[in-house]
Design brief:
Blueprint: E1 5-8, E2 15-19, H1 24-36, H2 43-61, H3 72-81, H4 89-103, E3 104-109, H5 113-122, E4 126-131, H6 135-145, E5 153-156, H7 157-160, H8 167-177, E6 184-188, H9 191-201, E7 204-208, E8 226-228, H10 236-239
Parallel strand pairs: 1-4, 1-6, 4-5, 6-7, 7-8
Antiparallel strand pairs: 2-3
């Protein structure tokens, strides 16, 4: 076994997902739901205000971090406050999750996700998650697809207000769980967030090219320690052990 700690990305690496936050159907349904709670928007108005507030939140965080990550719950609360409505945390969380469910076409693990993770566990490896994501969406989804119990530690960017490829985000995981760089490898499908992030932080990496890797990826220019170009995560069994 070449490493003790296996740090995985989530979406596009372990989970295959399709979402659409631009669909007219989504914003019509959200407009209706907001109206139920007394916040009267037109569907397109709601969409535009959501996008504006997301940009506003990101601009604030850019003063602190090079790669900021907003918290979507704050945006939803502001959407209500703009219409003079205050909601409690439980209602806000519910609204966020309805938004996610309605915008999701499908979510599932890849065919060999469990095979790969089971092998790492069998060999005594420690499995961690480092994900650019919204905790309010992602934690329930990890449970839903059956991945939660595989992770010794989970770091989700919305809780830290910073995301990959920032070394700050990597360091948060490593400090929290006492990981050593020389004993760790990053595995992900994004050549910037995962691979460039790992390079900047000073750890080895595996680039996994999958169906939702960034379209601008030029495989010859990806500077990963290891490459899997056909999306078969189970190949880490031969690469890393």
């Amino acid at each position: 076994m070449k490493y003790k700690n296996y740090v995985f990305d989530l979406y596009g690496t372990l989970i295959d997902i399709r979402t659409n936050e631009y669909s007219a159907y989504l914003w019509k349904k959200m407009q209706e739901l907001f109206a139920f709670y007394g916040a009267d928007y037109k569907a397109n108005e709601l969409k535009k205000e959501y996008e504006r507030l997301c940009k506003e939140e990101e601009a604030k965080l850019k003063k602190k971090f090079d790669y900021p990550e907003i918290t979507v719950e704050k945006v939803f609360k502001k959407l209500f406050l703009n219409k003079g409505v205050k909601i409690d945390n439980a209602t806000c969380n519910c609204m966020c999750r309805v938004f996610r469910i309605t915008s999701t076409k499908y979510i599932k693990t890849y065919d060999d996700t469990f095979e790969a993770l089971d092998y790492v566990k069998e060999k005594g490896g420690r499995i961690f998650l480092l994900s650019n994501a919204q905790n309010i969406f992602t934690l329930p989804e990890i449970y839903y697809v059956g991945l939660y119990d595989y992770f010794e530690g989970i770091e989700i960017s919305s809780l830290d207000e910073v995301k990959k490829p920032s070394s700050v985000f990597f360091n948060n995981l490593f400090e929290k769980f006492g990981l050593k760089k020389e004993e760790s490898v990053m595995i992900g499908n994004d050549w910037i967030s995962d691979i460039e992030g790992a390079n900047r932080f000073g750890i080895d990496s595996v680039y996994l090219h999958t169906n939702i890797s960034p379209q601008n990826t030029v495989l010859e220019e990806v500077k990963a320690t290891y490459m899997i170009e056909d999306g078969k995560l189970s190949k880490i069994k031969d690469l890393l052990f």
